[in-house]
Design a protein that fits this description.
The chain is 17% helix and 43% strand. The protein is of the alpha+beta class.
């Protein structure tokens, strides 16, 4: 496995599994598993975990567009909208780059539950090539 294909410990803890990528479009589709250890006091998945999944999708989509595999990047801003109920289970996420400049990228992502309902969306601004 190439270094750029190895998931971070954070993504691994989210149960991330890549389903498909399209580097030409800056697109990724991946699944995540939200277990009982992700549940808040209300019995739903803690929003911070959903944000982490969405940030992972935006970051991965952006990383796919780099000319050099080891190009550093960092999320400058992540705006998240929680849309639906998030229970324990598997989530399918898609992330894509909306615009990529020389040092800034704009990406979006969404998560769906096993029934296909959108539970959260995010938009991110990333600094590329620190």
């Amino acid at each position: 496995m190439a270094p750029e294909e190895i998931e971070s410990p954070a993504a691994q803890s989210l149960g991330k599994k890549v389903i498909a990528t399209d580097p030409a479009r800056g697109y990724i589709k991946a699944s995540y598993h939200a277990g009982e250890n992700f549940v808040n006091r209300g019995g739903r998945i803690f929003g911070g975990y959903l944000c982490a999944m969405l940030d992972s999708l935006c970051g991965h989509a952006t990383r796919l567009t780099h000319q050099q595999p080891d190009t550093p990047q960092v999320t400058l801003e992540l705006k998240t909208s929680f849309i639906g109920r998030a229970d324990v289970g598997t989530y399918i996420g898609e992330g894509w780059v909306r615009h990529r400049g020389k040092s800034i990228a704009f990406a979006e992502a969404e998560l769906r539950n096993e029934a296909g309902d959108v539970v959260a969306r995010a938009s991110a601004t990333l600094k590329v090539g620190l």
